[in-house]
Design goal:
248 residues, alpha+beta, Nuclear Transport Factor 2, Chain: A, five-stranded mixed beta sheet, disordered C terminus
Amino acid sequence: MNQHGFLASSSEVGDKYRCFIYGEGEKNTQWVFGAPPRYDVVNKLFEQGRTKVWPPGSLEEKVQNLVKTMEMELFHKSNPEDYKTIDPKSFTFTVNGRKPLTLQEIRLMGGGYNAFLQTSLPEEMRLYDPAKETAESAHVTFRTAFPRGFAFEVVQLYSGPPVIAYKFRHWAYMEGPFKGHAPTGELVEFFGVAVFEVDEQMKIIKVEFFYDRGELLSALMKGAKLDSSASEELLMSCPVLRNAGQKT
């Protein structure tokens, strides 16, 4: 943390945009995939595709790095007691005004992807059905579709702490199959608004995301339908996709 309570630059300890991956403070951290994640590939995608380059030390840059670090901890640290950006006892997560979820409820739902993609659509209309996915299957599904990762940027900051509101952009390239649809190689992106609330220690206690789930999933349906054998052959022909379950 810096003197204002935000995350300090993390480039000196292994990642340009995320803290709490390496160093003495993480020597006992329990990692979902057995080791700290690597973000070299998605960092390159971020740097090549971002629409904003925030000045070093700006509030926008600090919020952007806070969000990236929070997402890293939620997806890759298996023990909430190892979280440094989140108060695990108070934290709640809400999407599009739905019921707030605790960390335990997110885990029971199958992790971050499933919590983020909650839907009220009838079961037969769900291209991606969070109720039928596990944390592992969700990770493999999106890591396969987006082998270079899913980049994130803060596009505009509306307010600073303790209630942080911002507009964001998520993007990737569909270079692998998704739920029986062939890869298109095209840009997949969506925008949204988020509101974070932090406590006196600058730990996140409340997160609200507002976005159109259909903007993401409709782009993943553009590819031709594959039969099961073609989909499996495409997956196994590429080393990146074949190892989709490994850390990013």
